[in-house]
Specification:
317 residues; single chain; mainly alpha
């Protein structure tokens, strides 16, 4: 792993990856493209309806910012008696406190066909809420979210009004566009992660932390699925899809600046950052692999609900 990291570092520093400039192409251009794409594809009434879905928003934000970090803290009390590096455990705790990302959760929800409008609102709101209450500069968080989420979304909605008939007639491949952007995010994230010269992990620690992260993600996705599909939950299958991704995904864009501020001066900052650097690409990879399964469940569930709501034909005597 160490030699692979060094090799990636040489490639990165040689300029082969540098032209991609992920700090600009991903943070601003890719995210803006995602929300412009959403603005074009979503009907205005869908956005309005999602904004008023208070129960869904409360579920996502409470799970993300209260249940998730609490559960991770309890889990880490058990892991603290193991020989796992304490700084990696601190990194896991910070992962639990992160808000949902403004990109991957929306793209994966769209790929499945879930409540994309709800995913947009909760991803942006979670980042705004935690960013405004943390030591990260409020103005910086607000301006970045406004320029990369709100403005492209509004522009997409305005453009949609003028080409609505053409969009409905041609049906552009919005899902394919989002998937291409997601691939770009995965590629640059992996490059940034393994080109970091300050990360020197032995194979055992790396394998162990990857296993823990995937286990946490799978467990929490399953929990959100169970909670949101209870008989008295009133969530639709499309709502459940948005809940699964928004509640379990964590933001790298906001997370790294927060780590640098909170742990400024720590010589183990690179180790603390490792869990988040692994969690971000892992959540995208796992989510992408589960898209067909979740989509199949959602479609079959929607069909079943439609059949149960159809009026029964009168029985002839």
């Amino acid at each position: 792993m160490y030699h692979s990291s060094k090799r990636a570092e040489r490639i990165f520093s040689s300029g082969m990856l540098r032209p991609l400039k992920p700090e600009i192409t991903i943070t601003y251009i890719a995210v803006s493209a995602i929300f412009f794409n959403s603005g074009l594809s979503l009907k205005t009434e869908e956005l309005t309806s999602a904004l008023m879905h208070v129960k869904l928003h409360l579920f996502v934000q409470i799970f993300t910012l209260v249940f998730f970090p609490t559960a991770i803290w309890l889990f880490l009390q058990l892991l603290s008696i193991t020989p796992i590096n304490e700084w990696l455990l601190k990194g896991l705790q910070t992962v639990g406190c992160m808000p949902p990302p403004v990109s991957s959760a929306v793209i994966l929800t769209k790929a499945v066909g879930g409540n994309e409008a709800a995913a947009i609102f909760n991803s942006a709101f979670g980042s705004f809420l935690l960013g405004s209450s943390s030591s990260v500069p409020f103005t910086s968080i607000f301006s970045q979210l406004f320029m990369t989420v709100v403005v492209p979304l509004i522009i997409g909605q305005i453009v949609r009004r003028y080409i609505k008939d053409w969009l409905e007639r041609k049906k552009p491949p919005f899902g394919t566009i989002s998937s291409c952007v997601l691939l770009m995010i995965i590629y640059t994230t992996f490059c940034d992660t393994f080109a970091n010269p300050n990360i020197d992990l032995d194979k055992f620690s790396l394998i162990l932390i990857v296993f823990i992260i995937f286990s946490v993600q799978m467990s929490f996705m399953f929990l959100t699925f169970l909670f949101s599909t209870r008989n008295n939950s009133s969530f639709t299958p499309a709502d459940t899809v948005a809940i699964i991704f928004c509640s379990t995904h964590k933001s790298l864009t906001l997370g790294i600046p927060m780590l640098k501020i909170v742990f400024m001066g720590y010589e183990h900052l690179s180790l603390i950052s490792v869990p988040l650097l692994i969690y971000h690409p892992a959540q995208i990879l796992l989510g992408s692999l589960l898209v067909p399964t979740i989509k199949s469940w959602m479609v079959s569930r929607q069909k079943a609900l439609k059949l149960t709501r159809q009026p029964k034909a009168p029985v002839k005597v």
